[in-house]
C-alpha cells in the first residue's frame, strides 16, 4: 500500500514537471510568420499583410512587395497579457497593398533578429484576378487616416556654416477626403546644439498645396529659426502630434448624408540631419568674434566739440542680417584723460524665416576733464560672409574730440595721437640753477663755556624729561581711543578729498566736478579700484559686498546722481553746501566701515 502511494505521488510529480517543461518550451519557442487577409483578390481590391512574432525583435526587413504598391505601412501594434500565469506577447508589422498586375504574385520572405538570431517568414503566393464589381476588402478607417495625414518638417538649408541661420517649418498635410477636428503636440523638439528663436503662428490658416504630386490642404503649425553652435552632423528632433480625424464611410444616414467615423492618430515629422560646416581657418582675422552674415559697421559721436565736464555719447553699431545676438561688439580704445562710463547696450532685432535682421549697438557716455584734443582711434569689425565664403573687415574713421574750455592738466599737455599712442608734453621749469653768490660771513671767536647758553643747554634735559612723560601718557590715551582715532582719521581724509570742492562753493560747475572726483578718488584710495570703469549700480553692489550699511550706500549713490544732474539742472548755493556737508558725513561713515 505504501509503495503504491509513493508510486502514485511520483507519477503525479513527473506529470506536473512535464507540463511545466512543455509550457516553458512553448513559451521559449519563437514564431515569426506572414499572414494575408486573403489569397485571391481582384486587381481593384486591397490586401492586408501582417508580419507577426511572439517575441520582440530588431532590424525588421520587409520584402520588396514586387507586383504591389504599398498604400500604407508599416504600422506597428503590440499586445501583451497574462492568462493563468502565462504571458502572451505579440508584435505585428502591417502593410496595406494594392496589386499592380494580374496573375500569380509571390510575396517574398521578411526577416527579423530576435535574441541575436535571424528568423525568416515563409513566402506566400497571391492570385490577382480581374476587377470585381464590389471589392470585399475596403480600407479600414485607420488605413484611410494613415494614407491621408502627413506631418512634414521643411528645412531651408541642410548644409549651413557654423552660426549661419536656417529655418524649420512644420506643416500638417491633410487629404481633402478627410477632416481634422483637433490636434495637440505630444513631443516638442529641444534643438540641442542650436540657438533657436520661435516665430509665433498667431492663427493657423488652411492653405491649398500638393504632397507627393497629389492635392492636399496644409496648415503651418510651428516655425523656428536655428543657428547651429557646433559643426558636424546635428540632428533636429521630431515633432509629434496626436490628431483627431473624421473619416467618411460608405454608410448613409436617414437623410442620405455620409456618416463619418472618428479616430485618433499619432503623426511625427521624423528626425532631420543637418551637416554643419566649420568656418574656414584660412584667412580668419585675430579680432574675429563669431559674427556670421552680412553687416554694416559704424562708430559715431553725438558731438565733436564741447567744454570740459560736458558729456557726449559715442555709439558703436553693427546693422544687417545674421547672428546679431550671438557676438560681441568691438570696444573703442579711448585716451585715459577721458572719463568713460559703462556702455548701454541697445538691440533692435526682428526674426523672420530668412533669419535675424536689425541692429545692435553700445553707447558710451564720455566726459572730458581737461581742455585739449582727444582722438577716438579707428575700430575694426570682422564678420564671415557665407555667400561669398570669406571673411570681411570693416574699419571706422578716426574721430577727433575738441575740448575748447576747461582746466588744463598741469602735468600732461595736449594728447596727440600717433599710431594709437599718446605723447605727453611736459610743462613748467625742468631745471633749477644753483645760486653762485652764497653771501657767507666769517665765524667770529666766541667763548661758549661758562656762558648763559651753556647752562641753559645743561639744564634742558632735566626740563624735557617731565614733558616727555606727560606727552607719552597723552599719546597712550589717544592710542587707546580706537573709535576716536577712526573718526579723526575719517574726517582728515574727507577734508583732504573735499578741500578742492570747498574752494569751488558757489561755482556750480566747478563744485560738482570737484565733488564727483573727490568721491571717485576716495574709493580709488580705499578700495584700490578704478571707479571710472564702474557704473553707479556696480559701485552700490561693491559697497554692499564690503558690508556698508544701506544708509551710507544710498547717500554715496545719491551724491553721484546729484553730480550728474548738476550738469543739466540749476542748483542753488544752499544745495551745494548741503551736498558738501553730506559728502563729508558719508566719507566719514564709509571710512569707519571700510
Automatic annotation (TrEMBL):
The UniProt keyword set, sorted, is: Membrane, Signal, Transmembrane, Transmembrane helix
A Pfam family (short name) is BatD
Q: Which residues form the signal peptide?
A: 1-25
Please give the superkingdom of this protein's source.
Answer: Bacteria
Work out whether the entry's keyword set contains Protein transport.
no
Q: Where are the transmembrane segments?
A: 454-472
PANTHER family recorded: BATD, PROTEIN BATD-RELATED
List the protein's name: Oxygen tolerance
Source species of the chain: Zobellia uliginosa
Amino acid at each position: 500500500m505504501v509503495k503504491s502511494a509513493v508510486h502514485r505521488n511520483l507519477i503525479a510529480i513527473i506529470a506536473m514537471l512535464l507540463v511545466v517543461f512543455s509550457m516553458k518550451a512553448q513559451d521559449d519557442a519563437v514564431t515569426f510568420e506572414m499572414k494575408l487577409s486573403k489569397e485571391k483578390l481582384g486587381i481593384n481590391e486591397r490586401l492586408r499583410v501582417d508580419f507577426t512574432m511572439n517575441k520582440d525583435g530588431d532590424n525588421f526587413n520587409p520584402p520588396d512587395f514586387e507586383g504591389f504598391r504599398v498604400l500604407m505601412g508599416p504600422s506597428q501594434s503590440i499586445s501583451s497579457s497574462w492568462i493563468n500565469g502565462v504571458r502572451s506577447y505579440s508584435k505585428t508589422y502591417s502593410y496595406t497593398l494594392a496589386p499592380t498586375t494580374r496573375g500569380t504574385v509571390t510575396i517574398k520572405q521578411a526577416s527579423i533578429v530576435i535574441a541575436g538570431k535571424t528568423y525568416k517568414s515563409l513566402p506566400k503566393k497571391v492570385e490577382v484576378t480581374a476587377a470585381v464589381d464590389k471589392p470585399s476588402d475596403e480600407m479600414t478607417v485607420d488605413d484611410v487616416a494613415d494614407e491621408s495625414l502627413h506631418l512634414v518638417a521643411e528645412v531651408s538649408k541642410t548644409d549651413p556654416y557654423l552660426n549661419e541661420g536656417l529655418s524649420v517649418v512644420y506643416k500638417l498635410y491633410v487629404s481633402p477626403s478627410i477632416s481634422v477636428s483637433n490636434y495637440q503636440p505630444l513631443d516638442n523638439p529641444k534643438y540641442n546644439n542650436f540657438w533657436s528663436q520661435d516665430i509665433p503662428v498667431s492663427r493657423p490658416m488652411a492653405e491649398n498645396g500638393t504632397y507627393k504630386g497629389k492635392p492636399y490642404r496644409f496648415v503651418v503649425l510651428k516655425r523656428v529659426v536655428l543657428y547651429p553652435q557646433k559643426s558636424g552632423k546635428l540632428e533636429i528632433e521630431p515633432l509629434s502630434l496626436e490628431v483627431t480625424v473624421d473619416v467618411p464611410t460608405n454608410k448613409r444616414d436617414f437623410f442620405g448624408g455620409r456618416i463619418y467615423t472618428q479616430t485618433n492618430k499619432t503623426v511625427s515629422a521624423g528626425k532631420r540631419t543637418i551637416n554643419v560646416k566649420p568656418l574656414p581657418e584660412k584667412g580668419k582675422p585675430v579680432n574675429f568674434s563669431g559674427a556670421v552674415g552680412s553687416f554694416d559697421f559704424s562708430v559715431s559721436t553725438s558731438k565733436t566739440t564741447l567744454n570740459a565736464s560736458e558729456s557726449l555719447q559715442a555709439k558703436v553699431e553693427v546693422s544687417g542680417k545674421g547672428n546679431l545676438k550671438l557676438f560681441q561688439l568691438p570696444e573703442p580704445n579711448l585716451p585715459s584723460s577721458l572719463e568713460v562710463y559703462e556702455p548701454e547696450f541697445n538691440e533692435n532685432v526682428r526674426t523672420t524665416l530668412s533669419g535675424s535682421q536689425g541692429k545692435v549697438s553700445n553707447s558710451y557716455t564720455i566726459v572730458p576733464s581737461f581742455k585739449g584734443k582727444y582722438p577716438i582711434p579707428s575700430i575694426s569689425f570682422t564678420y564671415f560672409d557665407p555667400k561669398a565664403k570669406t571673411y570681411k573687415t570693416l574699419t571706422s574713421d578716426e574721430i577727433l574730440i575738441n575740448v575748447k574750455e576747461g582746466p588744463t592738466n598741469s602735468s600732461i599737455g595736449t594728447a596727440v595721437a600717433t599710431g594709437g599712442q599718446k605723447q605727453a608734453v611736459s610743462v613748467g621749469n625742468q631745471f633749477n640753477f644753483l645760486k653762485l653768490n652764497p653771501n657767507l660771513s666769517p665765524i667770529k671767536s666766541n667763548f661758549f663755556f661758562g656762558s648763559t647758553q651753556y647752562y641753559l643747554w645743561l639744564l634742558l634735559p632735566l626740563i624735557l624729561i617731565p614733558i616727555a612723560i606727560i606727552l607719552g601718557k597723552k599719546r597712550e590715551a589717544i592710542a587707546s581711543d580706537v573709535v576716536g582715532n577712526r573718526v579723526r582719521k575719517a574726517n582728515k581724509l574727507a577734508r583732504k578729498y573735499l578741500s578742492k570742492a570747498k574752494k569751488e562753493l558757489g561755482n556750480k560747475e566747478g563744485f560738482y566736478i570737484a565733488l564727483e572726483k573727490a568721491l571717485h578718488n576716495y574709493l580709488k584710495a580705499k578700495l584700490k579700484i578704478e571707479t571710472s570703469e564702474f557704473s553707479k549700480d556696480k559701485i552700490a553692489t561693491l559697497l554692499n559686498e564690503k558690508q556698508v550699511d544701506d544708509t551710507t550706500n544710498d547717500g554715496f549713490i545719491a551724491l553721484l546722481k546729484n553730480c550728474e544732474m548738476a550738469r543739466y539742472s540749476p542748483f542753488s548755493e544752499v544745495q551745494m553746501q548741503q551736498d558738501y556737508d553730506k559728502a563729508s558725513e558719508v566719507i566719514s561713515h564709509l571710512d569707519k566701515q571700510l
